[in-house]
Design a protein that fits this description.
3 domains, single chain, monooxygenase activity, heme binding, 362 residues, Cytochrome P450, Cytochrome p450, two-stranded antiparallel ribbon, Cyt_P450, mainly alpha
Length: 362
Amino acid sequence: MADYINISVLFWVLLGASVLYALTVPGRRGKGLPHGPPTLPIIGNLHQMPTRKAYIKFAEWAKQYGDMYSIKIGSTTTVVLSSRRLVKEILERRGAVTAGRPASYALEKLVFRGHFITIQQPDAPMYRVSKKLLHQYFGEPAIDRSHLRIINAEATQLIRDVMVDPDNFPHHAHRYANSFTMSATYGIRTPSHDTPHLVAITKITSQTASLIVPGRLPPVDIFPFLKLVPERLLGNWVTLCTDLQKASDKLYTSILGAVMERRKAKGPQDTFADICIDNKEDRHYFVGPDHTHPDALCYPEILKRAHAEIDMVVGEDRTPVWDDFAKLPYINQLIKETQRLRPATPIAFPHKALKGDGPRPL
């Protein structure tokens, strides 16, 4: 009888300890991690995550907790980097350790179905092939060898567009960036900011960017049982993802169709799509056109100094080209500052540590 009582007591003690663990440990920030906003049991910081414009909240936390801090969503730890130095140190110099991607059921299975290089794991066969081709065709040697003529031609139209319609400078810059990428990738230009494929790409890019913001989708990768909850109770997230997948497939199927028609009529060209087709590599590449919107410069003294440097190096008889860039240090810094104030995207796709304990305070 005494043994039975002891076993019963032990059972309830273990059960109580398990419940206490479940209520306190998940959501708690582990020792040695960068500090960050206070957490709640089980959910961590999930209750603090905004569903829109999360980068604003991240910037606020960076001012409070430093350029590297951690947040918890359930048992998952996310380390947020908010400085160029840390990004370069951790994501570039330690790239062999931090090149992984966290699981994303929504993006991997519902939206891109394994065909988006940005969210593929480094050990995936398609990732290695895709990255090799991208480096070969869009690396710096290829830019110097093959793409400068496109860049200079599109820059000429950009200057003309700004002169004719200066109030819509962001639209002109967007068209310029998209047209270069589309021309180099598919051999298809973007003559104006209301070109149908640019309108469609802008919408898809915006919707995709909203999906990667923590808190925008239910955390099904952390709490898989949420997949069983009717989606209407969770913002119709499945429909949102599948609608985006259909729009993306429709757009890129039409673009690939245009490439195939052009090849029939004029033969292959020196584009990324032609190389993939001729090499019989997997054609399901999502090469997203650049979505850069440089901020308008509102300080005339800066414009005067930049203009003076261009006049000194380039002269007044031509426009600057890529070969001049190394001789224009002020323009170089001006571009970097513009990108800091108005980055192409305020939040990058997340990385995952492949081994070790992940980033530590530097």
